[in-house]
């Protein structure tokens, strides 16, 4: 099984905390069928295999090398039966050198088997990482060393202009561009965009929203101010009849509102709760979650958008009990649940990302980061519907490539030849799921203008759970041409995230990564000169 994985090993699911921040650039050529990430394995970005100490096949699907020598065996100069002669000054026999490992055999290109992969951009459509990175560079912190750079969250955060579908449906856009060619290799950039319907705040379904608000002592200062600002932005976005509950969690977990129907935007009772929040207690996340879910359940209505909004500076730990509470209420794949939106507040010097990244993966909601009032109003007012509503559920993207193809760079969180290994993702209204990937073929002679690339998107209706499919099969001749606006921006966002990542992981020369990011950015700016998001990217890159 071929798999690139950021939160699961090929053999078992691992915790989000153990996998936080992983980024793999992998050549998944169709030249093998197994993976193993056990101890002793090593990667080979060239696509010729991942050797493993136990002799198993590598993660890119090529055969691994045989296991190494056994340090507990062989001649060691001792015996279990004692010595049989020789004086005390006699030197012991020399230890034998361990045998050298055989170099891996070069694998042949598989130019017969079509490549079928299942893709996921991110389990929870989170957008926290790019905001943390921006604030770390442009703010007072000035360092990326403590910021997890997750490329797929950058693709979630920045916007793309794909065709808008009819209500309840999705549109699919596939674009391809050749970027390099040699006698035995051809490289292409492939971008897939899956866009959802447009829904205004006036037209959205009514809400049942429960605010779980951190009032522990660590929230003093900026974190508490940003929690209040987020609360006020939410209040401004509500409609008459929306149901709001609120619990302040410290060691007392005081219920502030229970099943309260607001009169409209800026309801006075809700604003009083927002403005009256105070830091100073201890921390009882489990108690706060229990109280919050009890309030949400008491007002649960299948005709409403049911959400828990957890706001915190990330100072609490996520225990087994808390994970079970969240998972129990998130709902199975064939039912609606009380999804969780995790809101990180504070600044890059103090915020602990692990809490929100973990709980939102389990709770099937987005993780966002609020460092200032502008971001609070962007997420919870301008993009209120995007943040809380669901347009399509359990979206799964299947990509079929011709024989010989592999993925060498990928913007998403995971992909696999086994659909069961890839978590489907919900898609919000007014949103797009974007996959930017670099692919290459070891059999360029097989590519002709008529060679197809096929993409199939399977999903469930956001309201009825009816299963639906949208598919696209386009030839290389149809796909290849000038870069579109979306592809240019996709490349700019992807290389920007990779340049930030290179500042701390050093797997790539930071100067080279930044230069590539500037090159992609300049091409995008030439086509989109008024794009404010590209201007933001430039400001961060210039400050590195």
How would you explain this protein's 3D organization?
The protein is α+β, with helices and mostly antiparallel strands. 28% of the residues lie in helices and 22% in strands. It contains 14 helices and 17 strands. It has helices at residues 16-19, 128-138, 151-157, 222-237, 268-275, 285-298, 320-330, 353-363, 373-382, 384-388, 476-479, 485-505, 510-527, 532-543; strands at 3-4, 115-120, 171-181, 186-195, 207-214, 243-249, 254-261, 305-312, 339-345, 367-370, 392-401, 405-410, 414-416, 425-427, 432-441, 452-461, 467-475. Strands 1, 2, 11, 13, 14, 16 and 17 form a seven-stranded antiparallel β-sheet that branches. A six-stranded mixed β-sheet has the order 7-6-5-8-9-10, sandwiched between helices. Helix 4 (222-237) runs parallel beside helix 9 and helix 7 (320-330) runs parallel beside helix 8. The longest helix has 21 residues, at 485-505.
Keywords summarizing the entry:
544 residues, alpha+beta, six-stranded mixed sheet, 14 helices, 17 strands, globular, disordered N terminus
Number of helices: 14
Arithmetic mean of pLDDT = 80
The largest sheet, given as strand count, sense and whether it forms a barrel, is:
7 strands, antiparallel
What gap, in angstroms, lies between the N and C termini? 39 Å
How does the overall form come out from the CA principal axes? globular
Pick out the low-confidence regions.
Answer: 1-88, 330-335
SS elements, strand count: 17
**Beta-strand share of residues:** 15-25%
Oligomer classification: single chain
């Amino acid at each position: 099984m071929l798999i690139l994985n950021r939160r699961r090993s090929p053999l078992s699911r691992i915790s989000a905390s153990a996998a936080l921040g992983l980024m793999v650039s992998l050549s998944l050529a169709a030249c093998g069928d197994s993976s193993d990430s056990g101890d002793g394995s090593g990667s080979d970005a060239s696509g010729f295999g991942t050797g493993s100490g136990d002799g198993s096949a590598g993660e890119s699907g090529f055969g691994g090398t045989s296991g190494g020598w056994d340090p507990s065996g062989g001649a060691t100069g001792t015996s279990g039966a004692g010595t049989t002669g020789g004086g005390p000054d006699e030197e012991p026999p020399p230890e034998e050198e361990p045998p050298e490992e055989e170099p891996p055999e070069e694998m042949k290109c598989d130019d017969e088997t079509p490549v079928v992969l299942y893709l996921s951009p991110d389990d929870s459509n989170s957008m926290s990482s790019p905001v943390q990175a921006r604030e770390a560079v442009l703010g007072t912190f000035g360092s990326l060393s403590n910021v997890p750079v997750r490329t797929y969250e950058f693709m979630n955060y920045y916007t793309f202009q794909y065709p808008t579908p009819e209500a309840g449906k999705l549109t699919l856009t596939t674009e391809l561009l050749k970027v390099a060619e040699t006698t035995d290799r051809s490289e292409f950039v492939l971008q897939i965009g899956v866009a959802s319907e447009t829904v205004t705040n006036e037209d959205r379904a009514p809400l049942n929203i429960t605010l779980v608000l951190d009032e522990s002592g660590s929230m003093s200062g900026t974190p508490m101010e940003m929690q209040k600002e987020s609360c006020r932005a939410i209040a401004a976005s509500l409609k008459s009849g929306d149901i709001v509950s609120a619990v302040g969690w410290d060691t007392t977990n005081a219920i502030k509102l229970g099943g309260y129907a607001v009169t409209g935007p800026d309801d006075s009772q809700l604003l009083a709760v927002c403005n009256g929040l105070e830091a100073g207690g201890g921390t009882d996340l489990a108690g706060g979650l229990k109280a919050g879910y009890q309030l949400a359940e008491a007002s649960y209505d299948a005709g409403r958008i049911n959400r828990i909004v957890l706001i915190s500076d990330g100072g609490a730990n996520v225990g087994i009990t808390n994970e079970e509470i969240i998972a129990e209420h998130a709902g199975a794949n064939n039912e609606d649940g009380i999804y969780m939106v995790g809101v990180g507040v504070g600044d890059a010097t103090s915020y602990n990302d692990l809490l929100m990244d973990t709980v939102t993966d389990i709770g099937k909601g987005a993780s966002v980061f609020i460092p200032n009032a502008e971001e609070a109003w962007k997420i919870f007012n301008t993009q209120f519907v995007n943040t809380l509503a669901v347009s399509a559920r359990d979206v799964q993207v299947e990509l079929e490539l011709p024989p010989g193809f592999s993925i060498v760079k990928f913007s998403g969180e995971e992909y696999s030849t086994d659909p069961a290994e890839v978590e489907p993702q919900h898609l919000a209204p007014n949103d797009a799921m974007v996959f930017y990937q670099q692919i290459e073929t070891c059999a360029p002679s097989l590519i002709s203008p008529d060679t197809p690339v096929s993409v199939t998107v399977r999903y469930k209706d956001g309201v009825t759970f009816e299963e639906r499919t949208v598919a696209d099969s386009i030839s290389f001749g149809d796909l290849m041409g000038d870069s579109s606006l979306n592809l240019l921006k996709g490349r700019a966002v992807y290389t920007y995230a990779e340049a930030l990542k290179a500042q701390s992981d050093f797997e790539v020369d930071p100067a080279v990564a930044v230069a590539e990011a500037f090159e992609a950015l300049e091409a995008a700016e030439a086509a989109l000169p008024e794009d404010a998001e590209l201007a933001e990217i430039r400001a961060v890159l210039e400050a590195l």
